[in-house]
Design a protein that fits this description.
The protein is an alpha+beta fold. Helices cover about 35% and strands about 20% of the residues. Strand 8 and strand 9 form a beta hairpin. InterPro entries: DUF1045 (IPR009389). It holds the Pfam family DUF1045. This is DUF1045 domain-containing protein.
Length: about 240
């Protein structure tokens, strides 16, 4: 069993539903969905090039996947996550847009979110004690030779290169694409998602995702609302 701590909108949020259809799987229920019918892309194109994020589910990663360290338990993790979330303040992300990251596409804020950056760093630090250190052979498979000095230091300290100063919040929408497909997918993704990105995205929860066994799809185990109960009721 592996866990990750992420942000994703609620199950019935229009953005969650649209992303679930695009990827072909709902991250809360695990239900398989039909991909949208788009003029510029075939269903096969979408299915093949969304296989990786379909398994991961629609989310923005804050604490990458980890196995529980000896002496910790899922019950303890859930308890601490509930307490931690209750101490955080909800906030609004800057408007999201479709962006290219290498040869992949994702949703990301038009300007970096300092609030999200601080939240992600706090999540990594707070829950480090739950993480089983990465075995040497797994670290080798992560190809550390291609990492910068800062990324390699993160890998050694936190088990993932893209945390702390290397963190960039994004919600992946595709796997790596060939050069001939980049323009087609960018146009299709912008046409599909842009109408949904006019409303602000409220960060009101942390989501615990679980991977039941190696290679299994990641799904939402539970949502943990940000802020104290009394403050949420007043709002």
């Amino acid at each position: 069993m592996r866990y990750s701590i992420n942000f994703t909108p609620p199950a019935h949020d229009p953005l969650t539903l649209a992303a679930a259809q695009w990827l072909g799987r709902h991250p809360f229920s695990g239900a398989t969905l039909d991909h949208p019918a788009l003029r510029s892309l075939s269903l096969h194109d979408i299915a093949f090039n969304t296989a990786l994020p379909r398994r991961s589910g629609f989310h923005g990663c804050l604490r990458p996947t980890f196995r529980l360290a000896p002496g910790t338990s899922e019950q303890e993790l859930l308890r601490d996550l509930m307490r931690f979330a209750g101490k955080q303040r909800p906030f609004t992300l800057p408007q999201l847009e479709v962006v290219r990251i290498g040869t992949q596409f994702a949703l990301a804020p038009v300007i970096p979110s300092q609030a999200m950056h601080l939240l992600a760093g706090a999540v990594v630090t707070e829950f480090e004690r739950f993480r089983l250190p990465m075995p040497d052979d797994e670290m080798e498979r992560a190809d550390p030779g291609n990492l910068s000095a800062g990324q390699f230091a993160n890998m050694l300290r936190w088990g993932d290169p893209y945390v702390m100063d290397e963190f960039r919040f994004h919600m992946i929408l595709s796997g790596p694409l060939g050069q001939s497909d980049l323009c087609r997918f960018e146009t299709a993704l912008r046409n599909y998602f842009t109408p949904l990105l006019t409303d602000p995205v409220e960060v009101t929860n942390l989501a615990l995702f679980v991977e039941e066994e190696p290679g299994a799809p990641l799904s939402v185990h539970s949502l943990h609302p940000l802020g104290r109960v009394s403050a949420r009721r007043t709002a």
